[in-house]
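Researcher: Please predict.
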Amino acid sequence: MGFLDELSRKLSEGVDRARFEAEKFQRVTAIQGEISNLRRQVDAKRLEFSDRAIELLRAGAIQSPTLAALLREIEALQASLTLKEEELRHTQGQVFIEPAPAPRAQHVPVSVEPPRLATPEPPPLQPVAGGKTCPSCGFQMPQTAVFCPNCGLRVG
């Protein structure tokens, strides 16, 4: 048998296996659907049966202490369920309320003036001989000055 024949045979087996698995999946899914449908029908009939039994028990047509005890438990559970449903509706209806902004306290800085460090004062300006006089303060300044070194007036 040649390489291509072997490859063809393996490919055919793979296709057959995939077809089998797909059909099996369809059968399993169909059976699971039927089982689910039957369970729903059983649950519906049980509910119908229990509702009828409750009606007969309340009407006094059935005298059974065990059924009466079960009925009381069912009624207690239904009351708890009703309370929880109301609590849920109340909780779902709650909304967040933004808190009102707190009144802002007025900030008045209180400080003590820090002690001044002793800084050496610059030496006083000395008038320059043979210069020009500032018209504002009368300071003698160099002939080339544009600003008075004493008062800052523009003179040039």
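Model: The longest helix spans residues 3-59.
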